[in-house]
Each structure stands twice: as structure tokens, then as C-alpha cells.
Amino acid sequence: MKREISTTSDGSSTLFVPELDEHYHSVHGAIQESNHVFIDAGYHFFKNSEINVLEIGLGTGLNAWLTAIESTKKSIKTYYTSIEKYPITEEEIQSLNYPDLVTTNGNKDLLLKIHKANWEGFTALTPCFFLRKMKQDFKSIAFKNEFDLIYYDAFAPSAQPNLWTTHMFSLMFKALKENGVLVTYCAKGQVKRNMKSAGFTVEAIPGPPGKREMTRAKK
């Protein structure tokens, strides 16, 4: 798919896909959205010293990068599996400005390491953050009771409705451990009903800038 670089309202980069009329992140602020939805409502929800995370959609690597930074700050051993069928290009990676906006030692190198890490096996990117990238279709995953937390960051239901079905959320439910949590920016009624049909307990919580609500679902 053709992709274009775009700047969101908080000054951070995202990618735009004209074919789908979709941005990879909120136009109201890519970093703001990722921090609010995935870090604050997801990663910080747990008090564990070790956590297993599944991300649906590596994309720009923003969620993985922010999680890696948090894992170091809080000394949380984090095993992070990210599914991505269409990795971004070297040119697109170089155009991302996240390290210029979040000042943490070594964070620019860390973003590059995320994108250059080998596929399939776990790679230690820091003493606390272990990344496994898997190049496959979301619908083909078959994990069971493996993850504490899922970042569900697929394109919106209006663009790819087949990724927001009861079947997809059943796969997510199976992938989570008991008491595991899924977080997503999407708060559409049908999506929440599909989550409930898959077995989740669904909670609507305040959304990031530009969105009234987001969703946190528990197994």
C-alpha cells in the first residue's frame, strides 16, 4: 500500500494510507494517543515486575518504542510480541520524528533497533525489553494463555471491518492469560458487543485528545 508521512497535532509523525483513507495514529496527536491508550490505560494498569505484551500492528513502532522506554524507567521485564504483515520502509523509518520529541537517552537508536530487529525470535533490545516481531496476518495468530496485555491497534472498523469481529476477539481472548487485558482506541458500540460475545468484560474509559472514549476489555 502507498503511504505518506503526515504530522499530527502534537507535532509527532504518523503515516497516511490514501487507499484506506486511514492514518496509523490519531491526527490529534500520535504520541499523545499512544501514551494514553496503550501506556497509561494498558501498560500502567499492571503492577507486575514482568509482563507479556501482544501488539496487533507494529506500524511505525511507536507503541513498542514507548513501551521499551517505560520498561527501562520502571525496571519491568517486558516480552513484547508484535504482529505486522506490511513493515514500513527504511525511508519511512528515517522520517519519523518521535526521538526528537521524547528526550530519553538512546531513544533514537532504540527506535531503529525495533525496526531492524530480526523477525520471529525474541531479541533483547535493552536489559528489560525483549522484542519478537512476527510477519503474518492478524487472523492467523493462534496463541493460547500467553499474554497479560494486548494492544489492539488495527486500522479502524470503517477501513477494515474484518479485524473487529467476534471471531478476531475470540482469538484475542484465547491469547490472553486469565485476568489479562486488551486496550484499544476504538469505542464503537458494535465492536464492544463483539468483544462481549467473545467473552470479555468491557469497560468504556476516557479517550485520548479528540476522542470521548476508548475501550479496555478484561478476560
Multimeric organization: single chain
CATH first level: Alpha Beta
Distance between the termini: 34 Å
Low-confidence stretches: none
H/E element sequence: EEEHEHEHHHEEEHEHEE
Task: State the share of residues found in helices, binned by percent.
Answer: 25-40%
Class computed from helices, strands and strand pairing: alpha/beta
Number of domains: 1
Q: Please identify, by name, the CATH architecture.
A: 3-Layer(aba) Sandwich
- Strand arrangement across the biggest beta sheet: 6-7-5-4-8-9-11-10
Overall spatial form: globular
Give the number of DSSP strands: 11
Largest sheet: 8 strands, mixed
Assigned CATH superfamily: Vaccinia Virus protein VP39
Average pLDDT confidence is 94
The percentage of residues in β strands lies in 25-35%
Summary tags:
eight-stranded mixed beta sheet; 219 residues; Rossmann fold; three-stranded antiparallel beta sheet; 27% strand; single chain; alpha/beta
Report on this model:
The protein is an alpha/beta fold. It is built from 7 helices and 11 strands. The chain has one domain (about 5-219): Rossmann fold (3-Layer(aba) Sandwich). The protein has helices at about 30-40, 60-75, 90-95, 100, 105-115, 165-175, 190-195; strands at about 5, 15, 20-25, 50-55, 75-85, 125, 130-135, 145-150, 175-185, 200-205, 215-219. α6 links the parallel β8 (about 145-150) and β9.
